[in-house]
Structure formats: structure tokens, C-alpha cells
């Protein structure tokens, strides 16, 4: 069990008394959520809901869903996924004891869940009983030249609403189960990934509210949930005023926002970035420390336009930069409400947030 003790714990108490920014953690397992609490996280800022399905047994249900021929078939597989997600979400809510938990709905392109080589297909088919030829054909059909710019994020929720409907139901049912067991009432935040347009957000918001209302009516329990969006595409930042009409919070996905602003792959940037850093063109790796110029400008624009539409909109960051001290300093300056980072970076983030707050106060003198 990780724990903060002695002088370090004392230092944290001072830091907490000074900082303005809240600090949350990115977590999807019980272990990570518990570690986050130990390190002082004030909520979960990002549950990557798809991670719960990469497990060998669970992925079978996803594959079954992807292979289904029609909506009825997909719904049958989704019913299995619902049970699993609900269980996971109950666990996260229980560990977080009434602190906010932000669930990001399914993000990766569906083909990532399918086996691709003939051998893998054979092995999966043997293990799950799913038809090998169909698996391979579907993997080929779903293949995309640029999957990161393709059928992923909320585009899945628009094309296959039943997937997001299942996830919203799982979140609400889990929250209701936790309330029924007498534990602290959860504050679920439902977050849509890769949104770029107001009308897209409107569609997703309506889907979310419709399902949430239905579940609450079925159970006769009201849950105080919120709906929001990631801001991880330049267009989302520029049209933040439109998105804020239908979103109660924004969370900056600076991994994708850095990728799409520079047009540099977050996965393969190592091939040339070293040369840029050697030649002084880049001072630092923009995927580690937030680029305060281009990407930073987009964040400033989004904060300003989001607040123009909805003055009390809640603003956070959940990309890797949320645990980087120089980036946290920027988050303080631009006026975000919280940062979210991996559990083990929470103590550093608490310190960095305090340091940033001191810097801002000095400036005002
Ligand atoms: C991001 O894009 O910054 C983000 C937090 O989401 P993911 O890393 O899962 O794409
Ligand atoms: Mg992202």
C-alpha cells in the first residue's frame, strides 16, 4: 500500500493549504483508485472505460458485439458488457466515497478489439467459439488507414448509439446500487471523447439524458450526474462556445490535442523529435510538457469561449500533462479548476499546484 508519511506528509498539508487547483487521478482499476486516494486524489478525472475490456475473458463480449449482424445481436452482447461495467463502476464509486468520478465513454476504434493475423484469429476463435472467418473479415472491414482520425471516440456513439446507451445505463445503475447500499452518494460525470461540433455534443447530451432519465425512473432514484466533453481537437477548442451549450464540464485531452494541433503522432514522434530538440527547434517534448504557445492558445480560447456560454462550466485537464509541474503552472494561469494525472504523480501535482498558486499571488502583488 503506497502511503505518504513523515516530513513528506507534512509538506503535503502545507501544499494543500496553499493550492487552488484540485488534483484528481486517472484510474480505471480498483488498485489504481485506491492508490489515488492514498496519495490524496480528490476524485477521478478520467476512467478510460475501454480498458476494462482488454482483459482476456471480457474482450470476448466486445468481439461478439462487433461481430453481430444487426442491432438486436449487438444488444445481446452489450447486455453482457453492461453487467461487467456496472460491477466495475460500483467498485470505483465505493472506493471514491462520494468524490466525483469522470467516466469517459468508449474511445478507441473498434478494430483494436479484434485479432488481425490468421494465427491470432485461429486462437481467439478456439478460445471463444466465435467464427474465425467472420472475425477476420470483420477485422479487414474495420481496418482504417488513419484510425486515430477515424471511427473512434464519440463517432462510435453516433454510429452505434446502443454502445453509449449501455455505458450510460451502467454508470447510472452502478450509482443507484451504491446509494441503495447506504454508501456516500456518487457524483458521476459522463464524458464524451473526441467531440468537435456543437450538434454532435447536442446529440450525445440528448442520448445521455434520455437513458439516465429512463434508468432513474425504473429505479425510482435520482442521481446528481453531469454531462461533459473532452476538448482534444482544435475545432472543439475554437467552437467551445457551441460545445458549452450542451456540456457542464470540459476536460482537456492534451495528448490528442497536442497530436492534432502539431499534426505529430503521439505514438511515433520519437523518430524525429530528438533531431528537433538537438537543433533547438523544440525546447522540450510537447507530449511531456504542454506547448504553452499553440496548444496553450487553443486552451485559452476554449476556456474563454466555454465560460462565455456557461460561466460556471467546470474545467480540467486529463492528458499526461496533468501531472507535469510546468504544465500544471500553465493550468493555474489559465484558470482551470482541476488537473488529473496518474495516481503516482498526484503528490507531485499537489506540490506543483501549490507552487503555481504562490507564483500567481506574487505576480498580483
Ligand atoms: C488525451 O487525449 O489527452 C486523453 C486524456 O485521452 P487518451 O489519452 O485516452 O486519448
Ligand atoms: Mg484522447
From TrEMBL:
The PEP-utilising enzyme C-terminal domain, residue ranges: 6-356
Superkingdom in the source lineage: Bacteria
Signal sequence interval, chain numbering: none
Family membership: Belongs to the PEP-utilizing enzyme family.
UniProt function note: Catalyzes the reversible phosphorylation of pyruvate and phosphate.
Name by which UniProt lists this protein: Pyruvate, phosphate dikinase
Species: Phenylobacterium ferrooxidans
Part of the intact protein present: 534 to 898 of 898
Amino acid at each position: 500500500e503506497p502511503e505518504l508519511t513523515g516530513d513528506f506528509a507534512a509538506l503535503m498539508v502545507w501544499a494543500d493549504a496553499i493550492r487552488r487547483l484540485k488534483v484528481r487521478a486517472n484510474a480505471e482499476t480498483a488498485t489504481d483508485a485506491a492508490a489515488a486516494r492514498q496519495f490524496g486524489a480528490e476524485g477521478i478525472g478520467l476512467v478510460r472505460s475501454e480498458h476494462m475490456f482488454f482483459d482476456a475473458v471480457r474482450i470476448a463480449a466486445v468481439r461478439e458485439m462487433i461481430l453481430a449482424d444487426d442491432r438486436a445481436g449487438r444488444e445481446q452482447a452489450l447486455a453482457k458488457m453492461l453487467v461487467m461495467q456496472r460491477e466495475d463502476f460500483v467498485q470505483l464509486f465505493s472506493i471514491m466515497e462520494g468524490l466525483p468520478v469522470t467516466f469517459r465513454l468508449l474511445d478507441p476504434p473498434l478494430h483494436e478489439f479484434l485479432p488481425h493475423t490468421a494465427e491470432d484469429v485461429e486462437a481467439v476463435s478456439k478460445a471463444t467459439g466465435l467464427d474465425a472467418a467472420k472475425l477476420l473479415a470483420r477485422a479487414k472491414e474495420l481496418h482504417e488507414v488513419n484510425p486515430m482520425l477515424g471511427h473512434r471516440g464519440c463517432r462510435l456513439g453516433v454510429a452505434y448509439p446502443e454502445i453509449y446507451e449501455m455505458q450510460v445505463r451502467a454508470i447510472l445503475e452502478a450509482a443507484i446500487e451504491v446509494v441503495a447500499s447506504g454508501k456516500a452518494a456518487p457524483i458521476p460525470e459522463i464524458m464524451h471523447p473526441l467531440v468537435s461540433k456543437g450538434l454532435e455534443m447536442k446529440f450525445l447530451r440528448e442520448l445521455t439524458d434520455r437513458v439516465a432519465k429512463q434508468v432513474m425512473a425504473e429505479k425510482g432514484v435520482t442521481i446528481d450526474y453531469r454531462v461533459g466533453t473532452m476538448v482534444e481537437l482544435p475545432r472543439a477548442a475554437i467552437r467551445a462556445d457551441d460545445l458549452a451549450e450542451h456540456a457542464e464540464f470540459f476536460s482537456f485531452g492534451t495528448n490528442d490535442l497536442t497530436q492534432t494541433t502539431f499534426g505529430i503522432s503521439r505514438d511515433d514522434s520519437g523518430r524525429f523529435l530528438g533531431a528537433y530538440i538537438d537543433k533547438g527547434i523544440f525546447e522540450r517534448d510537447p507530449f511531456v510538457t504542454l506547448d504553452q504557445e499553440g496548444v496553450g492558445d487553443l486552451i485559452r480560447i476554449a476556456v474563454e469561449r466555454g465560460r462565455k456560454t456557461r460561466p460556471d462550466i467546470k474545467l480540467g485537464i486529463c492528458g499526461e500533462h496533468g501531472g507535469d509541474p510546468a504544465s500544471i503552472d500553465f493550468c493555474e494561469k489559465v484558470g482551470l479548476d482541476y488537473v488529473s494525472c496518474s495516481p503516482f504523480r498526484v503528490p507531485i501535482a499537489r506540490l506543483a499546484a501549490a507552487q503555481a498558486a504562490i507564483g500567481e499571488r506574487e505576480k498580483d502583488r
